[in-house]
Design brief:
Strand content of chain B: 5-15%
Oligomer: heterodimer
Largest sheet of chain B: 3 strands, antiparallel
Helix content of chain B: 55-70%
Order of helices and strands of chain A: HHHHHEHEEEEEEHEEEEH
Strand content of chain A: 15-25%
Number of strands of chain A: 11
Structural class of chain B: alpha+beta
Number of helices of chain A: 8
Largest interface: A-B, 53 and 44 residues
Strand order of the largest sheet of chain B: 3-5-4
Shape of chain B: globular
Helix content of chain A: 10-25%
Distance between the termini of chain B: 42 Å
Radius of gyration of chain A: 29 Å
Chain lengths: 311, 103
């Protein structure tokens, strides 16, 4: 398996003090924590960081880890030495959301049983499971079944935290919003001796949609219109989640004008609204006819859009 | 890896079907009840009703509570900091969406 250089992960020297390690963790945790980070690989980096800190912050684990030296040469497979861990006492760690790497488990496995108390909160039920999923927007606009591939963290028989993959066919409730959960009763863990199985909670979020943008239960569409459509008004065919409609553009509209179609957003309870935001699209002055039309317009309308700039 | 079953599983939108009690949140987050009480005291969670001598939370409290636990554990910040962080995160999310929408 692959050797993990925890000092490198944390960006500290091998002789770093506990204070320096803590400082490094604080700084990197803020940078890569998935709830606050905008970095692309934040989740993976944070997981790696958490594992490195778990080892380097504990004097026992760190001392044992240091014994392994710098690790094998690149390309060489790593194996823990046969008398690994002899004389060391590894205590359990706190509750975690994700599993440790194989490397960690091979060295410190069995020590991560800190979540052993979890079962007691469910009073005779199996454990609840939580997962997150990314759906297409149509799933909530229309409802419908989706095949979901879920990563579910769960405690195994030895009390270790592992990430299990499940594939489930789920009926997505129409009108569900980002951040809400689909609760699948009885799809959690079935603990031995428990009366009933726990539940599975799937937190939902949406992939970007080619046309609509989502804010809570409202949807937004940028609608390009011709200059005369905005200035003179008129009916313009517009896509909406429930099919195309003839939208009446009021005369005197301009770029950024908003029109609200009440209740045509996400069909939640109550339903959100659908907002159309006008963009003015200029016909290209591609040929002589177009150029002449523009010139005629310029001649007919005295118009200085920069009048307020003092030039 | 499991294979999908033939019948689609049906579930309710948890946030709409629930008002949660302290005991519910405690179970769902796998923490002791006094921690949930602490969350309320520090302003991390808001109680919407006080009914029958019981606190009630909106379904949205679940997401907030779990976020709070992650921030507290992973970033090693105290609850006052967590409460502030959550407010800022929610405002940031809202502003980012607004920005995207207004482009």
């Amino acid at each position: 398996m692959e050797f993990k250089d925890y000092y490198k992960v944390m960006g500290v020297a091998r002789d770093a003090t506990e204070a320096q390690i803590k400082q490094a963790y604080r700084r990197l945790a803020r940078k890569y924590h998935p709830d606050v980070s905008k970095e692309k690989d934040a989740e993976a980096r944070f997981k790696e960081l958490g594992e490195a800190y778990e080892v380097l912050k504990s004097p026992e684990k760190r001392a044992a880890y240091d014994q392994l030296g710098q690790g094998p040469r690149p390309g060489e497979d790593f194996r823990p030495p046969p008398d690994w861990g002899a004389g060391f006492e590894f205590s359990g760690s706190g509750a975690r959301d994700s599993a440790y790497s194989d490397f960690f488990e091979s060295l410190f496995g069995g020590a991560s049983a800190g979540a052993g108390g979890r079962g007691s909160f469910n009073s005779g039920r199996g454990q609840d499971h939580h997962a997150r999923v990314l759906l297409d927007l149509d799933a909530t606009l229309l409802g419908g079944t989706r095949q979901l591939s879920l990563q579910v963290p769960e405690i195994d028989a030895e009390g270790r935290l592992a990430s299990k993959q499940r594939v489930l066919k789920v009926q997505v409730p129409k009108g569900i919003l980002a951040g809400q959960h689909i609760r699948l009763a009885g799809q959690g863990a079935r603990a031995p001796g428990a009366q009933t199985a726990g539940d599975l909670y799937i937190e939902v979020d949406f992939q970007p949609h080619p046309l609509y943008r989502v804010d809570g239960r409202d949807l937004y569409l940028d609608l390009p219109v011709a200059p005369w459509e905005a200035a003179l008004g008129g009916a313009v065919k517009t896509p909406t989640p429930s099919g195309p409609v003839d939208l009446k553009i009021p005369p005197g509209s301009h770029a950024g004008s908003r029109m609200r179609l009440k209740g045509r957003g996400i069909p939640a309870a109550p339903p959100g609204d659908f907002y159309v935001i006008l963009q003015i699209a200029l016909p290209p002055a591609a040929d002589d006819k177009a150029k002449a039309a523009y010139a005629a317009l310029a001649a007919a309308l005295p118009f200085n859009p920069r009048v307020n700039l003092g030039v | 890896m499991s294979t999908p079953q033939d019948e689609a599983l049906s579930g309710a939108i948890f946030e709409e079907s629930a008002t949660l009690t302290v005991a519910d949140l405690s179970r769902l987050c796998a923490v002791e009840e006094w921690r949930i009480v602490e969350f309320v005291e520090e302003g991390v969670l808001e109680v919407v009703e006080f009914d029958n001598h019981q606190w009630h939370f909106r379904g949205a409290a679940l997401r907030r509570a779990r976020l709070a636990l992650r921030l507290e554990r992973d970033l090693e910040i105290n609850l006052a900091g967590v409460a502030l962080a959550i407010e800022l995160i929610e405002e940031l999310e809202h502003l980012r969406r607004e920005l995207e929408v207004r482009r």
